[in-house]
Amino acid sequence: MEKMLLEQLIVCFNYDGLLDSDIEEVIKKTRKYFVEKGFTLNRGIHKNVNVQLQDPGKVVEPLASTVREIEKYVFEKGNIIINITKNSLDLSVSAGLGYDGFDIYKQYIMHIYNDIISLFSDIVSIQRIGVRKINSLFIRDINTVNNYFVSNLINCNLTKGVVSGEYNQIAIAKNHLTLFSDCNKVNIVTEVQTGEAQEIKEASIKTFNVSRIILDIDAYWDNELNNIKCKEITVDYLNKIVTETYYNSLNQDFRDKLKNNNIADDNNIFGGVK
Fold first, then answer.
1. Rounded distance between C-alpha atoms, residue 3 and residue 137, angstroms
2. DSSP-derived secondary structure letter, 149
3. Distance separating alpha carbons of residues 109 and 11, to the nearest angstrom
4. CA proximity to 138, closest of 188, 79, 192
5. What pLDDT digit, counting tens, does each position of 189-248 carry?
């Protein structure tokens, strides 16, 4: 089985037109399926905070905020969490604790989504569908980053030489790119977090510099792209885009190494490979 750098999978649907009572009806319809699959069901409150900046020269309070509470249901099993509110449905998987493949998790979220559509197809308005995968890799020598990722993808110029003296906790360099097509958008966020780590070596604790490379890819459709071509957008289609973007971001030699059981690279990479 090919090694991967996946840290977290997120699949989400955003919609309008439903009430809290509608979601209760969805839960009644779907909970037996999830309980039989080993999930627990909890009920809580999701808080949306809306912060508004105002002209400080015209008002006494230049910063105003409102908190909107929304009823939320949560199905949970191990490293899988599914949140359902009247505005959104999302699934998240902490892949570092185990990953069974996209198709397994797709079945869970689509079971609820299909129940929503079957009950409220004449009411609900889908606003956004997204698939997001957050990948990470730890590298001891930041100068070797292009051995693993394609050239110019990772901006580490801001972190080179930073870890020294008293400012040795963490340095961050972050890039954000958004791509558009007729039926989807893709956010590609790369981040370098540089700091220190420790290891036990020869019966003593050794400190060494390390960089965490994050590759965050989010493919989505939203209602700004609502045209005839986009009527058949699926999570499978979006996952394919995320997967292709992920592979296109990796150096070919590193892609080949991920197919091997042992990808050790002079002890230079660790932590992110599963």
1. 12
2. B
3. 8
4. 192
5. 999 888 887 777 777 888 888 889 999 999 999 988 866 566 678 999 999 999 999 999
